[in-house]
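We now fix the convention by which a protein and its fold are recorded. The integers have meaning only within a learned vocabulary of local backbone shapes. A complete example follows; check for yourself that the lines match position by position.
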Amino acid sequence: MTQNAIPPTDVASRIAGRTLAKRGADYADEVRRLLDAALEVMRECGTVSRPRVADVVAAAGLSNEAFYRHFPSKDALVDAILEDGTTRLVSYLAHHMAKETTPEGKVRRWVEGVLSQTDEEVAATTRAVLWNSGSAGEGIASGRHFASAPLGALLHEPFAALGCPDPELQASLAAHATLGKVSDYLWQQTRPTRAEVDAITAFCLGSIASG
């Protein structure tokens, strides 16, 4: 093999790429462990006490160095937990909406799925996370949170199919209103009745005609 058969830079790039790929997988695992541990610790503390970074790190079996490698503060961690929860909820809603054959059915599935976040166990966890963010009444369960955009986007297609002239705007309004009610239920520690689910569904469908 001659000295110039394989350019040294190619070998270096390949080895460096392999190292970076492994490090990326390791870091992704660290982040997931921190997110899961934080969620569990916050669930246990509820709205009585706020866990420290040290508590999260201990529960994850990691170091402070690992925590600050990925998050500049606990607030950043809470934001990531909210974003992760939103992503999971969007996936859940999309899956169940796909089972419906009519746009009206898809809208109802959406409303029921969003309101399911008021179920006792889910609600307690969400309240704890929001309380740790220091913004009680805001966050994923509030119409003021960025969750309204990805959740509202799921309504674009059924609203358009129902003849809505501006499905993006009306879907955004429906998402803000529904998430606002979820926030009310969360902090009042109540759940919507069947009549209320029907009323919210009718409101979302009615917003199409008003658009």
Summary: The chain is about 75% helix and 0% strand.
